[in-house]
Design a protein that fits this description.
heterodimer; A: about 600 residues; alpha/beta; FAD/NAD(P)-binding domain; five-stranded parallel β-sheet; 24 strands; about 20% strand; globular; B: about 375 residues; Rossmann fold; three-stranded antiparallel β-sheet; 12 helices
Chain lengths: ~600, ~375
């Protein structure tokens, strides 16, 4: 293998698994260290800069970071990254004075369609640069699906108000209750750019016999959740069936439990493991005495005199073909009718753009989705950008934020007369963390603690009040314990071949057997000859140049604890622990013109 | 050593649950008192580590974290002992590790944390080991010493334990320098080699391998801390050898003896290393690998059934020829070369207990009846001597 080029910005970024997995590339270990130091406001600001909604995401994020967390490969569970984000939000001081100020008006106007996370992220990035941002939303308050679809017992209004206000107070004009019905009309208002962040607002229908006849007791999940959120619905029948296996289904069933649903069941086509809902959301539903029934396909709504009395299901089983693809085939058992009073249909969401006229210059693909450039988020109309669920279909908040940053950068470059396809490189800082002999700027003593559970409100109390937040969040003691579990993967092991005398001290001390000195070879061959098995080929091998004996140093990044013992035991300083920080480029990143060194 | 039954700990057993934390850091299990400024080695280990026949990983054979200087060759010897014991699936509680004084003699603290240990007086490891061995012949004896401990203050002790054929593995961690007193030449420093300050050594060196051969050691080897592929099998073979096994391991002192002009530096040893053979230790049913070209491998069966497959690097070298080995060593030493490998082995060696005709039962477990058979037996013995 060729010597690893650690100056490539992505090399060390990938070692910070959580940050690499995060669509917004939030510097996770950096903010977790700040939490451990008690610097909650600083931790919050790092999050705010990167993911815009730390308090909201700290309660609702889909957490792509956690399955990626190195700790999950070292022991049973990853660090509770998401809930530590909430800690930063819960325990910060007043940070308003640290927020940017509205920039001096630059004369450019940007319209944002939809008041959800994507549009707000765009506005957050553009308003301080002097753009006049106008956000349109059909709902009276900003937040989009974060406000309308996520139940209050998971995400209180106060948190949404706080974090949307931080953005609106940057001089962003919010036109609540003004749904955009015509893009053509909006284009005619001569905005310099338009961003469409209108989400995936339509719940998918379930067209099976009885749907029309029993319509009074069959509700589309996201619409029903919005009605609950805005107070239009405050009760449901005693026996409720929720159809669907995603997170919306989990929100529906738990909401139903709080509105009079005594016997609430989630019934899903697929098996339990393949359900789209996050594991912790399934857990929370089960905890609230909601059974999840699998491998049952709804075939008919049963009704008597216009009144829903139950749903009939066909039993299926999973079969796998030669290519490993799953097919659901009838199991041969008799159909089963489950009696109920109400049904909530949460079988997916769809995009809908009835308000975009054919002659607006926006082309759609065969799935009726707008053609959007995945890097710049521009549509086929150079002034119109898409982001969030509106761009590529339903994902989650953190993706919407990431899209927003990229779209804002495009808009900024477009309106500054620059090529939107040229994306400036992120700025990377790498600096030694050595403070003295055996002394590092970070706490390298690896905690053996297991993942700490987030305290929950007592179930009886929680089920009585639909606005009572179920998760109470970590207290400071728990937060510190959990923060200490972070392995500081951003503090990188950096090796200098010319300094190495091949004494083996690093090999001998490494608790994870990450380091080998061996003859060079092709990657597949090298992976066979390392000191410990190397099963994760997506994890890089760090290979040095040739050493004096003709061998090379090979470090498998896979399960490195970043404890720094290799550097502590190295007599020549050939190993050093260096902190890697990457500043993702956002619209308005300072020193845009400065020549960027990659590392 | 009856009564001492060290437990074997599962390092990854779940710790005490903690309910949050008041301060950052780590729960130090039961250790009070002085703590070094650096951290304990984390208990986490690679999830794919192989286990030996006893279900232990090599991490289970570790001791405390080393307090030696960073990069010390001794730490690599420690790692090699750990590896050898892991590979042999040795039960840690069946090992007694005994040492004297010096950097080398600190190392038993850093391996086999669940074994018996005795850190004795300077140079007196051999007699303490001999005594322990006489009292309990059932343990595996690992004597760890240095060039100061064995070639200076303990030279006589070293000599007598070898000539008595105590069943042990005697390892000298040889750096040619008194590290703890800041780098004076030791008795194994070569004549003409230079100290870190530039002083030339005018005294002749003691070659412990030559002495061990002359005094009748039945397993003699030399190796280098920077070459674990050679060292680990040598230690394993020595442990399986019945009789006095002696291994001289050149172990560079990073702080005081790793400069140009030293003959015990990493660079010098790598340049002048003349390995006569490479060793594979085969225990149990392991078949001999078919990778060897015919005629290049010599298989030596030891007393306990273990087999040593010696891959010859020097076609003329015969590890069964004590006299030849001594000549070979002297010739190469004169050329400035360091001969390493398994230099001599007598697979049918006897040990001290055989010579003394002691009972198979360890003496420390004999009951009073066996030890004091009564006046009638005494009379009989006395009569036989008249």
């Amino acid at each position: 293998m060729k010597p690893t080029d650690i100056s490539a910005p992505d090399y060390f970024h990938k070692v910070v698994d959580c940050q690499w997995a995060c669509p917004a590339h939030t510097p996770v270990p950096e903010y977790i260290r700040l939490i451990a130091e008690g610097r909650y406001s600083d931790a919050y600001m790092i999050n705010w800069q990167s993911n815009v909604f730390p308090g909201i995401l700290g309660r609702t994020c889909d957490r792509p970071c956690e399955p990626a967390c190195r700790r999950g490969r070292v022991e049973d569970n990853p660090v509770a990254i998401c809930r530590l984000k909430r800690v930063a939000a819960d325990f910060k001081d007043d940070i308003k004075h640290r927020l940017p100020k509205p920039g001096p008006n630059n004369g450019k106007r940007v319209a944002l369609v939809g008041g959800g996370p994507a549009s707000l992220a765009v506005a957050r990035d553009l308003a301080p640069l002097g753009y006049h941002c106008t956000v349109f939303d059909g709902d009276p308050k900003a937040g989009g699906m974060m406000r309308s679809q996520i139940p209050k017992f998971r995400l209180p209004d106060s948190v949404i108000d706080e974090e949307t206000d931080y953005i609106l107070n940057l001089g962003v004009e919010f036109k609540g209750g003004q749904r955009v019905d015509s893009l053509k009309q909006l284009l005619a208002e001569n905005y310099d750019a338009i961003f469409v962040g209108s989400g995936a607002p339509r719940g998918r229908e379930l067209d099976i016999p009885g749907r029309k006849e029993a319509a009074a007791n069959i509700h589309i999940g996201i619409e029903w959740l919005a009605n609950v959120s805005f107070g239009h619905v405050d009760k449901i029948g005693r026996r409720v069936i929720v159809l669907g296996g995603g997170n919306t289904a989990m929100d529906c069933c738990r909401t139903a439990r709080r509105l009079g649903g005594e016997s609430v069941k989630v019934i899903v086509r697929s098996g339990f493991e393949e359900m789209k809902a996050s594991p912790w959301e399934k857990e929370d539903a089960l905890h609230e005495d909601i059974p999840i029934l699998n491998y049952m396909v709804p075939v008919a709504f049963k009704h008597v005199a216009g009144k829903l009395i139950g749903v009939t299901f066909q039993k299926v089983k999973a079969e796998y073909d030669a290519k490993g693809r799953r097919n659901l085939v009838p199991s041969g058992e008799p159909d089963e009718t489950v009696p109920c009073d109400d049904v909530l249909v949460a079988v997916g969401q769809e995009n809908a753009f009835p308000w975009i006229e054919a002659d607006c210059g926006i082309e759609f693909d065969k799935w009726h989705m707008p053609k959007v450039d995945p890097k710049t988020f521009v549509s086929t109309n150079p002034k119109v950008f898409f982001g969030g669920d509106a761009a590529f279909g339903p994902k989650n908040i953190i993706w919407a934020v990431a899209h927003g940053h990229d779209a804002a950068l495009s808009i900024h470059r477009l309106l500054s007369g620059e090529d939107i396809n040229e994306r400036p490189l992120p700025e990377v800082h790498v600096s030694s963390q050595k403070m003295g002999i055996h002394e590092w700027s970070y706490d390298n003593d690896i905690s053996a603690d297991k993942r700490f559970k987030v305290p929950h409100r007592d179930k009886v109390v929680a089920l009585k009040d639909i606005r009572a937040e179920v998760e109470l969040g970590y207290d400071l003691k728990l937060a510190l314990g959990e923060a200490q579990r972070c392995l500081n993967c951003d503090v990188q092991t950096v090796f200098s071949a010319p300094l190495c005398i091949e004494c083996d001290a690093c090999v001998d001390i490494c608790p994870m057997d990450c380091i080998s000195f061996t003859e060079n070879g092709e990657e597949d061959d090298l992976r066979q000859r390392l000191k410990a098995p190397s099963p994760h080929h997506d994890q890089a091998l760090y290979v040095s140049g040739d050493l004096k004996t003709g061998r090379v140093m090979v470090k498998d990044e896979d399960v490195c604890l970043h404890c720094g013992l290799c550097a502590e035991r190295c007599p020549t300083g050939a190993w050093d622990m260096q902190k890697y920080l990457i500043d993702m480029v956002q619209a308005g990143s300072t020193c845009q013109s400065k020549a960027r060194s990659a590392a | 050593m009856p009564g001492l039954v060290p437990g074997i700990h599962d390092f990854l057993s779940p710790g005490q649950d903690v309910v949050g934390r008041d301060k950052p850091g780590h729960d130090v299990a039961g250790s009070a008192g002085a703590v070094m400024t650096y951290i304990a080695k984390p208990k986490f280990h690679h999830p794919g580590l192989k286990k030996n026949e006893l279900g232990y990983t090599h991490r289970d054979y570790e001791g405390k974290i080393s307090t030696l200087c960073a990069g010390c060759g001794h730490d690599s010897i420690t790692a090699s002992i750990i590896e050898a014991c892991y590979e042999l699936s040795i039960e840690p509680h069946r090992v007694a590790k005994i040492s004297g004084i010096g950097c080398s003699s600190k190392t038993p603290d850093y391996f086999l944390g669940n074994s018996h240990g005795f850190n004795s007086v300077h140079g007196r490891m051999p007699s303490v080991l001999t005594g322990a061995n006489l009292a309990n012949r059932d343990l595996i004896y690992l004597g760890v010493s240095g060039d100061g401990d064995s070639a200076s203050i303990g030279f006589g002790q070293f000599a007598h334990s070898i000539r008595r054929a105590v069943n042990m593995t005697y390892i000298v961690e040889n750096n040619g320098v008194y590290g703890l007193t800041k780098g004076q030449f030791s008795a194994t420093a070569d004549r003409g080699s230079k100290s870190k300050k530039g002083v030339t050594n005018t005294d002749n060196a003691i070659d412990l391998v030559a002495i061990a051969l002359q005094l009748g050691a039945t397993f003699v080897a030399r190796s280098f801390s920077g070459d674990k592929t050679q060292l680990v099998p040598l230690i394993a073979a020595a442990i399986r050898h019945k009789g006095a096994s002696f291994i001289d391991v050149i172990s560079p002192c990073i702080a005081f003896n790793n400069h140009a002009g030293s003959t015990k530096s990493f660079d010098y040893v790598r340049e002048h290393n003349d390995a006569v053979n490479r060793l594979d230790v085969l225990v149990g049913r392991d078949p001999i690998s078919v990778d060897y070209a015919p005629g290049t491998v010599q298989v030596v069966e030891q007393h306990d059934g273990s087999r040593l497959a010696l891959r010859k690097l020097d076609a003329d070298y015969d590890p069964h020829d004590r006299l030849g080995a001594m000549t070979f060593l002297q010739k190469h030493a004169a050329k400035g070369q360091i001969v390493t490998g398994l230099l001599y082995v007598d697979p049918d060696a006897e040990d001290l207990h055989t010579h003394l005709d002691t009972v198979e039962t360890p003496l420390n477990t004999l009951d009073e009846q066996a030890l004091c058979p009564g006046s009638a037996v005494l009379d009989k013995i006395n009569a036989s001597l008249r």
